[in-house]
Design goal:
This protein is an alpha+beta fold. Helix 13 crosses helix 15. The longest helix has 33 residues, at 124-156. It starts with a helix and ends in an 8-residue tail after the last strand.
Length: 788
């Protein structure tokens, strides 16, 4: 009983000495929460008065009024003031943790005060617990007081306080978790040191060491491992989990993406962090218990920690400086050695000076210097000579389960995405209730592709490994890549999944022309196609209709279930049969979108939000004519036949009579084109010389019609070129075709953009711009290469 009363008496006395902390915490939290909420409510009430006064000029969306808009924005204000979107609170909590840890045990830096406190007949464990718990009480109590004020302000404005209490308490728990982690680690730093300045440096080291070393290891991997892939490297996890601050920030960020009602989902991350905070508190308490009284005023409280900490600091600093100088010139080991030696001696010397507060100790403990040098060289050697076998990794057939392969250069993945339901707190542009999330092709392949043909994967990996070895040899000799004009380099990401569940990714870069047979095998794989094209996984039951597009305008093909199923099956069959060779020779003739139920629901919501009298079916203008459309090639005879049978609006060949005018823009430098302008005194820049144009107007003459006919017959819509990067394309010319009002189906006045194959440049363009295929540096000859 006496011990219990003593504990609370000591706590009471300590809290009296910390009245400044209560006052400062209250003021900072007061401005960060109640004042913020009050200012927001004032602004919102003024805005509401304007809405009511001039209601006719405000559109709140279908079914919404000024009152519902006020309630919605008041809810957003609640999240911004007492929820996890109040990022200022995170900064204040971390700052408070550092300040309270440093000041709470400040007496440990004074020998007189240490002697006084340790002469009191109270166990060290109680002294530590009192001061540590008081720091938590200061922040926790002031946070809760200001939280109550803020809830009162929001409630007075009309917010539903009971509905916010749960989210507010979860926010409090998140912030206290971040506080406990930071407070515990900073307290441990104070326990390890005996000087205020060294305590601050110690805190910097403890908070930043693991993330810094993780970043250094990533740098080593990126410099020395040619097949480095960051998809699953573990570096990000080490950065987030290796220090309280990034973990706390990531916790706030994750919570900010949730509505307040779902903050409870963070419990899975909060509980382990609270346990980690308690462990840090226990470690700090043990350090306090065994800390020598004479440690006050010294740099390090425990002599046994000096050598390990010094080596742990010197080694990464030495490696970092070595890499910085080595990275300047791969072949110059001299500069690498200079950076290594310079960092080794300087970092070791500075730490010795800080340990001893004596410049004469600059070269003390040479043994530690030698150990640091050996360890740093060993780490660099492991990465430089790939002793872990990272670049040569290839699972055995016995361990192999499946693989994903994404080839960036094939251009299989265009503008594909999917609708995602927006949370109620999303900003005004999402009042339709949906967000559109674009999909990354490599992410889609990683999550959906499972190639089980080990022979195919092995051959692909071995080709990538061989290319990596060549690239590594060239890199460290600072030579140029041997790839010439005839090479067609492919960037490939391969994910290896083993039977034990492990997943490893490697990044390869190979010449597709040299490995054409291998790439043909890959592209012919049904498993590859299924993981590369989302449409290969579509089902007729969830496909509501099919739409066709020329890149400018989309139109409905069919909503008939039988025709939809037949067309989908035909397209999937012919896309699976499409070969890489065919893609090098063909440009798509049109594109189809197989609209899913989720996409239709999304488009309906968009149209309902944008129109006053929604008919129940979305408007075609709300469908982007270039998103989620899959290419159709001329070799897709079955698909084309069904499209014609369904009466689809296939892109028609334009006739000269359909054209009002066309502008041909040339991006090849032509100094002669602007010579007459220069002679006339006009200022002509180099940028001007890089672009010239030709306007052809359909004035009804035979000459104009012939010129237009040449361009129309040779040109193809630019978007169709975009859908297949493997075919030849002349990027030096762009044609803007302006149609007559009768021929412009969109009635928008927007031009049809066309391009050319370098083999099919019209005679009018060859003559006007002196086009020479041999010097056409903007021409892409495709995977097949330039023909003789």
């Amino acid at each position: 009983m006496t011990s219990k009363s003593l504990f609370f008496r000591l706590m009471k006395e300590d809290l009296k000495r910390r009245l400044w902390a209560f006052g400062l915490s209250f003021l900072t939290f007061f401005f960060a929460m109640p004042v913020l909420a009050a200012m927001g409510v004032t602004n919102l009430e003024q805005q509401y008065a304007l809405w009511v006064e001039d209601a006719g000029n405000y559109d709140f969306g279908a079914g919404n009024t000024a009152e519902t808009e006020f309630s919605r924005r008041l809810g957003e204000l609640a999240v911004e003031s007492i929820g996890l979107e109040n990022v200022v609170m995170g900064f204040l909590v971390i700052t408070a943790a550092l300040v309270l840890a440093l000041t709470g045990f400040l007496y440990l830096h004074s020998r007189k005060q240490v002697d006084f406190y340790h002469s009191i007949p109270v166990r060290r464990e109680i002294l530590f617990t009192v001061r540590f718990v008081d720091g938590i009480l200061v922040i926790g109590s002031m946070y809760l007081v200001n939280l109550l004020f803020t809830l009162g302000i929001l409630g007075a404005a009309g917010a539903s306080v009971p509905g916010m209490v749960s989210g507010a308490l979860w926010t409090f728990l998140v912030h206290m978790t971040g506080f406990l982690l930071s407070y515990g680690l900073m307290t441990a730093a104070v326990m390890l040191t005996g000087n205020f300045f060294i305590s601050v440096l110690g805190g910097i080291v403890l908070f930043g060491y693991v993330p810094a070393v993780a970043v250094l290891f990533q740098g080593l991997m990126q410099m020395f491992f040619v097949t480095m892939d960051l998809r699953i490297s573990g570096i990000a996890e080490w950065i987030v989990h290796g220090s309280p601050v990034p973990y706390y920030v990531s916790l706030i960020g994750e919570g900010a993406d949730l509505p307040m009602a779902r903050y409870g989902e963070l419990m899975g991350r909060i509980l382990p962090a609270l346990l980690a905070g308690l462990v840090l508190a226990v470690i700090a308490g043990l350090l306090y218990k065994f800390r020598p009284s004479e440690a006050a005023g010294r740099a390090m409280a425990f002599r046994m920690t000096k050598a390990p900490i010094k080596i742990l600091l010197v080694v990464p600093v030495t490696i970092l400086m070595c890499l910085l100088f080595w990275n300047m010139y791969y072949e110059s080991l001299g500069w690498a050695a200079f950076g290594f030696v310079f960092a080794l001696f300087i970092s070791h010397g500075i730490i010795e000076i800080l340990y001893n507060f004596d410049f004469r100790k600059l070269f003390a403990n040479p043994v530690h210097l030698g150990i640091s040098a050996v360890l740093a060289l060993a780490v660099i050697g492991v990465f430089r000579y790939d002793l872990t076998g990272y670049d040569s990794y290839l699972p055995s057939e016995e361990k192999f389960q499946s693989a994903s392969v994404f080839t960036y250069t094939l251009g299989d993945f265009q503008d594909y995405g999917l609708p995602v339901k927006a949370e109620s707190r999303e900003w005004e542009t999402e009042q339709s209730g949906y967000l559109w999330k674009y999909m990354d092709g490599s992410d889609y392949a990683a999550g959906n592709m499972e190639i089980t043909d080990y022979g195919l994967v092995k051959d692909l990996a071995e080709a990538g490994i061989a290319a990596a070895e060549e690239s590594k040899a060239i890199r460290f000799q600072n030579l140029e890549e041997p790839a010439g004009d005839d090479a067609y380099m492919a960037r490939i990401e391969v994910g290896f999944k083993e039977k034990n569940g492990s997943l490893r990714y490697r990044y390869y870069r190979i010449d597709m022309k040299e490995s054409m047979d291998l790439m043909e095998r890959l592209y012919a794989s049904a498993e590859y196609k299924k993981g590369a094209y989302p449409v290969m996984s579509f089902h007729p039951e969830t496909t509501t209709g099919i739409y066709i597009s020329d890149g400018n305008q989309a139109s409905l093909v069919t909503e008939d279930p039988e025709m939809t199923a037949e067309l989908l099956a035909a397209y999937q069959e012919e896309l699976e049969a499409l070969s890489l060779t065919e893609r090098t020779e063909e440009i798509p003739v049109t594109a189809l979108r197989f609209l899913t139920e989720a996409e239709k629901e999304y488009l309906n919501a968009i149209s309902a939000f944008r129109t006053q009298n929604f008919s129940g079916s979305f408007r075609l203008r709300d469908m982007d004519p270039q998103v989620n459309f899959f290419p159709v090639y001329s070799s897709f005879t079955k698909t084309m036949g069904l499209l014609k049978e369904a009466g689809a609006a296939l892109p028609e060949e334009l006739e000269p009579e359909d054209v009002e005018r066309m502008e041909i823009v040339c991006h090849y430098e032509d100094s002669a084109f602007y010579k007459e302008y220069e002679e006339a005194g006009w200022e002509v820049t180099e940028a001007d010389k890089e672009t010239s144009s030709l306007m052809i107007r359909n004035d009804g003459t035979a000459e104009a019609k012939e010129q237009i006919r040449q361009v129309l017959e040779a040109g193809k819509r630019s978007w169709f070129f975009d859908l297949n990067d493997l075919a030849p394309r002349e990027r030096g010319f762009m044609v803007q075709v302006y149609l007559t009002p009768e021929a412009d189906g969109t009635q928008s006045g927007e031009p049809v953009t066309m391009g050319f194959s370098p083999y099919e440049i019209p005679e009018i363009i060859r003559q006007e711009f002196s086009y020479d295929p041999e010097s056409a540096y903007q021409a892409s000859w495709g995977l097949a290469g330039k023909k003789d």
